[in-house]
């Protein structure tokens, strides 16, 4: 931020240039009561450093998501001496990091190494590189574009082959899954589905804490400075609770369902096979047509099931008969 000389005076065009706002925006702020009117000196309107500071404060609050109506109330509180320190501290606490992770950078070559595929930009004619390898690299390019869309990777202006990784843990999980044989498209689809569910959990947690903890600090007007400072301290204390709760519940659910799924596949749960489950079986169309003509389309599936069961029973009977015959031959005297 450029330091301004003390007691500086600006025309509206100069104020617009220094603040980054347009002349039209400055006049709109004046009409809304967000910005004081300029001082009249002769036939000219003159703005001061106070106007410049006010415009910068408005821009900062807009960047934090405040509406102009809310900003007006905050600025009125500031003007009456109530101060914005507590409110801005609360905003800073909410806007602060919700994880201990630190973003890292990764090159395109490192992505290729971690996720496989031909080196980025390799031509088919290059020695030792097959057309299939280049196709795999093209698939990886599509996956990179999707990762950028999902926010797993962020492009860095002016550096086409370097990306920012906001969550190294998330990228590491994707690499492990891919290494275990999960296609990148399946990983992206799973992340999209998981993100919807996690965002629902976040909304519910915020609704819960707003109702039971923060309701007394929220109202039609911005909180007093002391209340905002107290609310900021509460945010700092409660910040880890959401993640700790989700971690504990996820661990419980994974233990329960993983154990149940393993027992089901190993047949150790003591339950009979689920006869309600079905599988697709290829049957010649002529056979299906003949059965439909014989028993009707509505009974075709039942016919095939009963016929198969009868065949299995017949084979079992044949096996028992053969076994009995063998036993009789062994019992005959020589």
Automatic annotation (TrEMBL):
Gene3D superfamilies: 1.10.1660.10. It holds the Pfam family MerR_1. One of its GO terms (molecular function) is DNA-binding transcription factor activity. Residues 9-77 form the HTH merR-type domain. SUPFAM superfamilies: Putative DNA-binding domain. It comes from the Bacteria. Keywords: DNA-binding. The keyword DNA-binding applies. This is MerR family transcriptional regulator.
């Amino acid at each position: 931020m450029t330091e301004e000389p003390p007691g500086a005076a600006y025309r509206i065009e100069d104020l617009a240039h220094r603040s980054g706002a347009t002349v039209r925006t400055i006049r709109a702020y004046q009409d809304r009561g967000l910005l004081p009117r300029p001082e009249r000196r002769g036939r000219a309107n003159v703005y001061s450093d106070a106007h410049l500071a006010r415009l910068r404060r408005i821009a900062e609050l807009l960047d934090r998501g405040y509406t102009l109506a809310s900003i007006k109330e905050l600025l009125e509180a500031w003007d009456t001496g109530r101060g914005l320190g507590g409110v801005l501290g609360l905003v800073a606490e909410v806007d602060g990091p919700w994880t201990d992770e630190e973003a890292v950078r990764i090159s395109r070559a490192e992505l290729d190494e971690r996720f496989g595929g031909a080196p980025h930009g390799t031509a088919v004619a290059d020695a030792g590189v097959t057309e299939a390898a280049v196709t795999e690299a093209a698939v990886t390019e599509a996956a990179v574009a999707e990762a950028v869309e999902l926010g797993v990777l962020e492009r860095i202006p002016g550096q086409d082959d370097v990306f920012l990784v906001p969550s190294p843990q998330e990228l590491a999980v994707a690499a492990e899954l891919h290494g275990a044989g999960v296609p990148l498209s399946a990983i992206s689809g799973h992340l999209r589905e998981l993100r919807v569910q996690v965002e629902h959990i976040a909304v519910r947690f915020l609704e819960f804490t707003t109702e039971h903890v923060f309701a007394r600090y929220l109202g039609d007007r911005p909180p007093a400075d002391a209340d905002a400072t107290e609310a900021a301290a509460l945010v700092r204390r409660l910040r880890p609770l959401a993640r700790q709760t989700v971690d504990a519940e996820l661990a419980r659910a994974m233990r329960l369902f993983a154990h149940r799924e393993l027992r089901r596949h190993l047949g150790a749960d003591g339950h009979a096979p689920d006869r309600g489950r079905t599988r697709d079986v290829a049957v010649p169309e002529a056979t299906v047509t003949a059965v439909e003509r014989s028993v009707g389309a509505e009974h075709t599936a039942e016919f095939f099931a009963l016929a198969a069961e009868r065949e299995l029973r017949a084979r079992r009977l044949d096996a028992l008969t053969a076994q009995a015959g063998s036993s009789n031959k062994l019992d005959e005297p020589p």
